[in-house]
């Protein structure tokens, strides 16, 4: 029941790589149990940096999941992408070989690309010389690498793309995937698994001024809390199989729900703080209109949850303007993973689908209640059971990017 | 740059296999420890990029200059060992 | 009624002098802008040739703060966008800024700035644990290239959808494709689109050296980029930006805008084959072309000019020649095909947009730009590549293609909006 007979895009497969759980069900169980993946940094010696915490993926042995031939040519983030994409495709039970040769494509988002790989090759170049730079550097670090590697791995030759809109990219990639399905592609493997947990990546993140300098894993990233003091970077995200609803029905696929609405907007150049969030309001309203959904029909919001006071205020103000004060349950399970850059919003959308499936809103960890000035019904303490039909997912990227998506459970 | 280890010794098939493993991995369906000398690299699961990386590694680790055209007529490990060892002998 | 998308403004910063007019003068006269790299000492590298922009950001109207803040790729994009918006006659910021979007292509981000900052933070590569205390305040923006789209969006006051499209060497074309999607679906009426890249830096040279993708023809830099020539031996790196103002047709007509061309069809495919390699039959590019033609409702025979990817590598030029034959049939032998990379090199995420600007100007002036340096055609490249000199021809419908690392294959068809087929 979509406007104007538009093709509907449903999610038939989910794959997750997250700091608190590898694989969809492991992640979902950890999230409902309130288990966080934020912990002291182990990937490198962080003792000299003001931020020594990260949401690192720890239960992942690349040799176990990634073909040996791909190991020397892939950044850690690409390996995690391949893992999540594999899982999503397996979960969908869709055999791309049975589709039209160009019937399935890949849409991803990235922020820094294969950055750890890039730092290593920069070091090879500058400390040893050009002959020491890997032949794989030409693509292993660039932003399109995950789209390319995933398409090759699964033989997906349809329209494919990569978008870079900072942390809004996790939704923009899914919006792009839905566009392709509306234009006639049967299915898309789409989403983002992202992260740059290397010293050079951290230097960039620290320069943004948005990072936390807390040293306690359970106090460092507290979106919407009175004590919010910045973000903790993490790595991971999700891939989804987005499929033409007719194709999904015909092959008897299980659907997690429809990607019913999506929109992206951009903030005007820096505005007075009492107007901040207007761009986000427009994105949410456009996405709701696109989904044919009234604000009162939204059952839960997965927030961008920056953890930076003025950004949190802009978001809660926007949610208040659309839904009324406390008008809808709001949550931020990313409080248990850290900010996954472009990967975060893809994971939020996957989480929203799991919440719809199980009738449970995961809570925002480590936050006992929203701070004053946040007129939102933040789900804290423990998951909240509810009959959920529609969820809104919100994402923002540095500089002014806003994206919003509505998912609807099949009824 | 000339700071590569200049251990000028002949390259054995075992050396080559070990370099290939570290610079390009190995195809799960191929036994690199078997008799591979006359197998085509493509049958061993190695593409041109893998060979470029391998040749670069050999060139650095063994301190030999291998020209742009080194791979032009190389199809098998035996071919590659021959051109590399010729270059090592000439060094 | 289906919304149609037209080009109403162009701007370019191409190798040589900045400006669309200067760019067109260069390539329509068959002159090359490839030379020995001057921005740093290329002596340690195998390939030391590139097509550089003689770009002075202050002369291009950027302020000192902007110059300090922006990577070279961002500066190119801003200069090209100013020119394109002025050329379109649009009054920006618009009355309805929410109907204005940005879709910019870029393959390798702010490489130059990233590498410069890296060398400072790492103490010339000696420290893995880089010292963040030496970071510039906008370091994050150099690491995440969405910052380029942010600058452009602020420049034009866009409040609709804004995106950086990063599909390797097809980014410039794919950004235009994304812009047409945004306008067609009604998410925007105007999209500032195009591509930018400034990749000429030590790390880029080193990584292209490692795969021998760039030419070692260092002793003859002006003639180093030789698409379709039997003696070609690699691409020449370039840099630059092109911005095109894309607009919904009725929106453009209402304000009496000059319309250069309609973006009539877009096709994109992935080869799912190899991160850098191409299948020799060009099947995916051929299918992208067929799809773009179908979307444009044009027969292969109606294409008057093909702007090739023509990167001057052994495998690419063969690959796309095969693709043209598959997709265009007999007409592949009759239609003029040329590669402007012979003159301005390969600027990665920018080149697709620069090539579309060349297509637009070919339509305007009835002049097909040549393939420079083509003296000895490769026997397997047996089409009409317009060697050396531009050719006068009536150009109503144009096909432009791109191919890139990651397997991306894109085709765009430009046409006159008043054509009968539509």
From TrEMBL, chain B:
<dbReference type="InterPro" id="IPR006162">
    <property type="entry name" value="Ppantetheine_attach_site"/>
</dbReference>
<feature type="domain" description="Carrier">
    <location>
        <begin position="10"/>
        <end position="88"/>
    </location>
</feature>
<protein>
    <submittedName>
        <fullName>Acyl carrier protein</fullName>
    </submittedName>
</protein>
<dbReference type="Pfam" id="PF00550">
    <property type="entry name" value="PP-binding"/>
</dbReference>
<dbReference type="InterPro" id="IPR009081">
    <property type="entry name" value="PP-bd_ACP"/>
</dbReference>
<keyword id="KW-0597">Phosphoprotein</keyword>
<keyword id="KW-0596">Phosphopantetheine</keyword>
<dbReference type="InterPro" id="IPR036736">
    <property type="entry name" value="ACP-like_sf"/>
</dbReference>
């Amino acid at each position: 029941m979509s406007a104007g007979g538009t093709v509907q895009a449903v999610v038939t497969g989910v794959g997750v790589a997250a700091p608190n759980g590898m694989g969809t069900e492991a992640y979902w169980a950890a999230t409902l149990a309130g288990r966080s993946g934020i912990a002291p940094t182990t990937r490198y010696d962080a003792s000299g940096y003001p931020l020594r915490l990260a949401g690192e993926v720890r239960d992942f042995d690349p040799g176990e999941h990634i073909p040996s031939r791909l190991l020397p040519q892939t950044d850690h983030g690409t390996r995690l992408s391949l893992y999540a994409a594999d899982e999503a495709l397996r979960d969908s039970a869709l055999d791309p070989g049975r589709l039209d040769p160009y019937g399935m494509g890949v849409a991803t988002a990235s922020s820094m690309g294969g950055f750890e790989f890039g730092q290593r090759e920069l070091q090879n170049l500058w400390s040893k010389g050009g002959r020491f730079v890997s032949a794989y550097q030409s693509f292993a670090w660039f932003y399109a690498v995950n789209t390319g590697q995933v398409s090759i791995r699964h033989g997906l030759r349809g329209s494919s793309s990569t978008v870079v809109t900072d942390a809004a990219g996790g939704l923009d990639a899914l919006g792009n995937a839905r566009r392709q399905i509306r234009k006639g592609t049967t299915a898309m493997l789409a989403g983002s698994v992202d992260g740059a947990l290397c010293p050079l990546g951290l230097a960039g993140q620290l320069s943004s001024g948005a990072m936390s300098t807390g040293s306690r894993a359970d106090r460092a990233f507290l979106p919407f809390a009175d004590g919010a003091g910045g973000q903790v970077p993490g790595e991971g995200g999700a891939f989804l199989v987005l499929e033409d609803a007719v194709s999904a029905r015909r092959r008897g696929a299980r659907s997690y729900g429809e990607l019913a609405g999506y929109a992206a907007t951009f903030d005007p150049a820096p505005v007075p703080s009492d107007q901040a969030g207007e761009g986000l309001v427009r994105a949410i309203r456009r996405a709701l209109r696109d989904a044919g959904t009234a604000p009162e029909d939204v059952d839960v919001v997965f927030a961008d949850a920056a953890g930076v006071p003025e950004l949190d205020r802009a978001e809660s103000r926007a949610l208040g303007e659309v839904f009324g004060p406390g008008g809808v349950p709001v949550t931020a399970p990313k409080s248990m993973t850290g900010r996954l850059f472009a990967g975060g919003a893809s994971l939020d959308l996957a989480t929203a689908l799991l919440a719809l499936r199980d009738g449970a809103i995961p809570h925002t960890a480590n936050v006992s209640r929203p701070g004053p000035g946040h007129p939102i019904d933040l789900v804290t303490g423990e998951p909240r059971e509810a009959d959920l039909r529609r969820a809104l997912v919100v994402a923002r990227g540095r500089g002014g990017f806003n994206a919003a998506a509505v998912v609807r459970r099949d009824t | 740059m000339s700071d590569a280890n200049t251990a000028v010794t002949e390259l054995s098939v075992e050396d080559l296999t070990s370099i290939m493993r570290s610079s390009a991995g190995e195809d799960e369906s191929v036994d690199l420890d078997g008799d591979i000398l006359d197998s085509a690299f493509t049958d061993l699961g190695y593409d041109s990029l893998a060979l470029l990386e391998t040749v670069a590694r050999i060139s650095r680790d063994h301190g030999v200059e291998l020209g742009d055209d080194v791979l032009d007529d190389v199809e098998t490990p035996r071919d590659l060992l021959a051109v590399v060892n010729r270059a090592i002998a000439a060094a | 009624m289906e919304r149609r998308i037209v080009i109403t403004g162009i701007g370019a910063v191409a190798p040589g002098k900045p400006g669309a007019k200067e760019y067109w003068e260069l390539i329509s006269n068959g002159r090359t802008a490839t030379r020995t790299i001057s921005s740093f000492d290329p002596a340690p590298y195998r390939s030391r040739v590139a097509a550089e922009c003689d770009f002075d950001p202050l002369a291009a109207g950027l302020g000192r703060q902007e110059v300090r803040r922006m990577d070279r790729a961002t500066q190119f994009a801003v200069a090209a966008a100013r020119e394109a918006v002025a050329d379109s006659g649009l009054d920006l910021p618009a009355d309805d800024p929410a109907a204005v979007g940005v879709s910019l292509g870029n393959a390798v981000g702010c490489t130059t700035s990233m590498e410069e900052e890296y060398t400072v933070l790492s103490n010339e590569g000696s420290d893995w644990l880089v010292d963040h205390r030496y970071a510039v305040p906008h370091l994050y923006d150099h690491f995440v290239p969405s910052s380029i789209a942010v600058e452009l969006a602020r420049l034009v006051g866009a409040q609709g959808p804004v995106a950086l499209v990063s599909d390797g060497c097809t980014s410039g074309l794919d950004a235009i494709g994304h812009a047409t999607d945004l306008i067609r679906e009604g998410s925007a009426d105007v999209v500032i689109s195009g591509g930018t890249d400034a990749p000429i830096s030590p790390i880029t040279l080193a990584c292209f050296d490692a795969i021998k993708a760039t030419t070692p023809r260092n002793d003859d830099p002006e003639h180093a980029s030789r698409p379709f020539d039997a003696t070609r031996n690699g691409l020449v790196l370039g840099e630059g930006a092109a911005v095109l103002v894309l607009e919904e047709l009725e929106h453009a007509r209402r304000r009496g805008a000059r319309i250069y061309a309609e973006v009539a069809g877009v096709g994109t495919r992935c080869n799912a084959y190899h991160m850098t390699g191409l299948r020799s039959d060009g099947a995916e590019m051929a299918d992208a072309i067929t799809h773009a033609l179908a979307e444009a409702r044009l027969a292969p025979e109606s294409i008057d000019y093909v702007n090739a990817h023509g990167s001057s590598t052994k495998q690419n030029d063969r690959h796309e020649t095969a693709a043209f034959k598959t997709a265009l049939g007999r007409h592949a032998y009759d239609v003029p095909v040329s590669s402007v990379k012979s003159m301005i090199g390969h600027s990665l995420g920018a080149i697709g947009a620069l090539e579309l600007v060349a297509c637009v100007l070919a339509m305007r002036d009835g002049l097909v730009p040549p393939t420079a340096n083509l003296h000895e055609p490769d026997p397997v490249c047996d089409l009409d590549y317009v060697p050396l000199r531009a050719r006068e021809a009536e150009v109503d419908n144009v096909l432009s293609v791109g191919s890139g690392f990651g397997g991306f294959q894109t085709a765009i068809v430009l046409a006159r909006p008043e054509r009968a087929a539509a």
